[in-house]
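Shipment paperwork, digital attachment
Item: protein structure file
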Amino acid sequence: MKNIQLVHIASVSFIVSAVVFAGGYFLLQHKNLLPVVQTEPVLSETATIDTPPTNTTVPDIVEQVIPAVVSISISADVPVFEQYYEDFWSPFGDFFGNGFGFQVPRQRQIGTERQEIGGGTGFFVSADGYLITNKHVVDQEGVEYTAVTQDGETYNVEVVAKDPSLDVAILKIDADTDFPFLAFAETENIRLGETVVAIGNALAEFPNSVSVGVVSGLSRDIIAGDGFRFRESLEGLIQTDAAINRGNSGGPLLNLNGEVIGVNVAMAGGSENIGFALPSDVVRSVYESVAEHGEIVRPFLGVRYLQITEEIAERNNLDIDYGVLIVRGETRGDLAVIPGSPADKAGLTENDIILEIDGQKLDGSKSLAALLRTYGVGDKITLKVLQDGDEKDVEVELEKAKND
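Attachment content:
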C-alpha cells in the first residue's frame, strides 16, 4: 500500500508528517477513480490578476499570479529551558577517608517564547482578503496564524471556516487594502497531460517556490493521513507530477492561463513526484458558501453507512452487490439514523440499503457523501431503498448540516 501524507510543516510537539496533503499529509491508500464534478467558473471577470494569453510563458504566469500567494506561518509559545549543575557530595571517601563531590547537569524551564513551529501555503480569492488553504494547515489549537505576502508584508489571519468533510479552510485578513487574487478555472476543461504550475512555501523555509509539471491523473480517490492518528478520505483529486513538498499544503495548482485548477493537498511518500490537489470546483463552492452566508452551508441526510461491495454481498448473502447499508458506528452512541434528521423523518431505519439517488446507482464509483455535496439545502431527492426485502422510492428533503 502506498504511503500518502499531508504536507504542511509542523515542529516538535506539533509534529505533522507528510502523506497525502501538501502541508503535512501523506497518501495512505488508493481508492476508486471518480469523475470530476463540473460547475460554472466564478471570479474570472473581476479578478485583479489579468488572465494571460495562452502563449504566455511560465515565468510570465508566475510573475502575474505570485502576488496572490501567501506563506502561512504557525507560531506558538514554547517552553524555554536552561541547563544548570547541581552539586552532589558523595558519602564515600577515598582511601584516606576524605569525601568527594561532583556536579550533575539538570534542566529547568525559565519561561516561554513565541516561535514559529510550522507553516503552509494559501492564496487570495477576493480583493477584500479572503484566503483559501487546507484545513490541516490551520487545525491546531493554541497557536497563532499569520500570512506573509510575496513582498514581505505580514498579516494576522482569522480562521473563518473549516470544512468538516473536505480538507479546506477559509481565512480572512482585515486590512485597508485591495489584495490581488486568483480566478478559478472550469474543472471540465482540465486535460490529462496539460502543463500545470504549483506555488508554495516548500518545507516552510522556501516561500514562493515554483514547480512545473503536468496533470498525471484525474478523479483519484485516496485515504490520507498525518502518519499518526489523523486520516480522511478524499475523492476526485487531481494527480500531478509537479513537485509538491511539505509546506506546499494549501497552495494553488495553476493552468497556463494562470487560473486555479486545484489546491495542493498531499503527496505520496517514497514516490517520484506523485502529488494531489483538491479540484477547484469543490473548493470554490466552499468559499462561495462562506462569502454568502458567513459559514459553510451543506445539505444533510443523517445516516451512517457502509458501501456494499461484492465481497460484503457474498459474505452476508445479499441479493445485490451495490448500494450503501445504513449501519451503526463504532460506539453505542453512534446511531445508524440520526434522530430528527431528514432520513429519520423519511422513515429510513438501520439495515436499510440505499440503492440509488435520483436514479444514480450507488455502485461505489462515487460516495454517498460526494453525491450529496452536489445538492443544496432544501432540495428534494428521491432515494430507491431496499427495506425489509422490498424496494421502494422515498422522497427526502435535505436540511442544513451542522458544521460541528
